[in-house]
Design brief:
alpha/beta, Rossmann fold, Heat Shock Protein 90, five-stranded parallel β-sheet, 57% helix
Length: 430
């Protein structure tokens, strides 16, 4: 005969008795019969054990110090978590009053000491079986209630669907008639859209031609303005040099203003010509090393970097299909802006790139003066400046050129910034 307990316990039994010998005997008996006993020596330990891991059944002594079995049982029955656990009292008290009191506080059975093992085991098995049957009955009741509710809901849905079906049938002819009318309107709409698309295509072609002519005009006009401006500036400087001793301070100031105005106009025209060249460029794209383009841009800015003690760093940049000279100009304009719009401390500029789907995302960050949110879109428009010439020199074309270069390379450009917190310019290249 195999006396080893089964691998899966028949039940989790909590044994509560302040006599170690009783605990040992009951534990040994229950283990050999295939149960998993837990033993505690007082009421407080029993309550804690039940709250942490409720057992399937409790064997409870009555006469214990501090808290007797009746009080323990009352506590268990007052809590929802432990209320349903069957409690069997095992006690040397054999008076009818004791037994009545045990059942009054919620016990399901009462065994008098000295007990017989087979009697204890039979009662445990009986009450565990009864509890399992009660659990099954409750579960079946719940399932039955759910089934009844589900069937009622199905019946209601079926009734509603029948009503909807009747309405659908009654309206079918009206819908078909309306559909025919809609088809007629749709054919008219298609014809109108085809005419509109044709007109839009013609307008786009006209707009492209007009833009090309406008860029050509800007290029020619800017180019033709260079010579007379140079002449004005030269003659103003010659006048100041030749008649310096005959001019008062006010006249010298006027001549200086003329020279300064001509110089600024020439710078503006140069930038305008550069902006026009970006749109007119027909140079085919080729594999371009962005590292080399950035290095060339930094080399072009060495004077400004040295004068401001700027720190320019960058991560490894990719090779893309693009126009090398325009990418140099793009990096140069962004780094130059980062150096120009700075605080009193030396500028710190960082250039990085990361792959995003089909595009490369480039970022140029700095520790400069930052840009308010309301200005972050219009700074990419031509001739848009946020500062006076006295504060920061420039023409307001640099970022417009950047946007035009990025758009020619199939990407977009934007900025993230807060005043006083520096700026982070992002652009993508396909």
């Amino acid at each position: 005969m195999n006396n080893h307990p089964p691998e899966t316990p028949l039940g989790n039994i909590l044994v509560v008795d302040d006599t170690p010998e009783n605990l040992r005997l009951l534990s040994t008996m229950l283990t050999h019969r295939g149960y998993a006993p837990r033993c505690v020596i007082n009421g407080q330990m029993a309550l804690r054990a039940c709250n942490s891991n409720p057992p399937d059944l409790i064997l409870l002594d009555i006469m214990m110090p501090e808290m007797n079995g009746y009080e323990v049982c009352q506590h268990l029955k007052s809590e929802a978590k432990t209320r349903e656990i069957p409690v069997i009292f095992i006690s040397a008290k054999d008076e009818v009053f004791d037994k009545v009191n045990a059942f009054a506080v919620g016990a399901v059975d009462y065994i008098s000491k000295p007990f017989q093992f087979e009697e204890v085991l039979a009662r445990i098995e009986s009450h565990l079986t009864l509890r399992n049957l009660q659990k099954q009955l409750k579960e079946q009741n719940v399932l039955l209630q759910e089934e009844i509710s589900s069937r009622l809901e199905v019946e209601n849905n079926l009734h509603e669907k029948n009503q909807s079906l009747q309405q659908e049938i009654s309206h079918r002819h009206a819908v078909e008639k309306a559909l025919q009318e809609q088809n007629v309107l749709l054919q008219k709409e298609i014809a109108n859209r085809q005419r509109a698309e044709s007109a839009l295509l013609k307008s786009n072609q006209e707009l492209a031609r007009s833009n090309a002519e406008l860029e050509q005009f800007a290029y020619v006009a800017s180019h033709d303005l260079q010579a007379p401006l140079g002449t004005i500036a030269s003659y103003a400087q010659l006048l100041e040099k030749r008649y310096k001793d005959q001019l008062d301070d006010q006249a010298s100031k006027f001549i200086g203003n003329i020279v300064h105005g001509c110089t600024r106009m020439q710078t503006l025209i140069d930038d305008l010509l550069e902006y026009s060249r970006v749109g007119r460029s027909q140079k085919p794209f080729e594999l371009t090393d962005c590292d080399r383009a950035l290095q060339q841009a930094i080399a072009n800015l060495q004077g400004a970097i040295r004068d401001t003690q700027a720190v320019v760093s960058y991560s490894e940049l990719p090779t893309v299909m693009g126009d090398f000279s325009q990418l140099v100009q793009l990096f140069q304009n962004l780094v130059s802006n980062a150096i120009k719009y700075r605080h009193d401390v030396p500028p710190v500029v960082r250039i990085t790139a990361s792959k995003q789907d089909e595009n490369w995302l480039f970022s140029v960050s700095d520790n400069g003066i930052g840009i308010a949110l309301k200005h972050q879109e219009r700074i990419f428009q031509i001739f848009q400046r946020l500062h006076t010439q006295r504060e920061y020199s420039g023409t307001g074309i640099g970022l417009a050129i950047c946007q035009k270069i990025v758009q020619r390379h199939g990407g977009c450009i934007w900025v993230e910034s807060e005043p006083g917190q520096g700026s982070n310019f992002h652009f993508t290249i396909a």
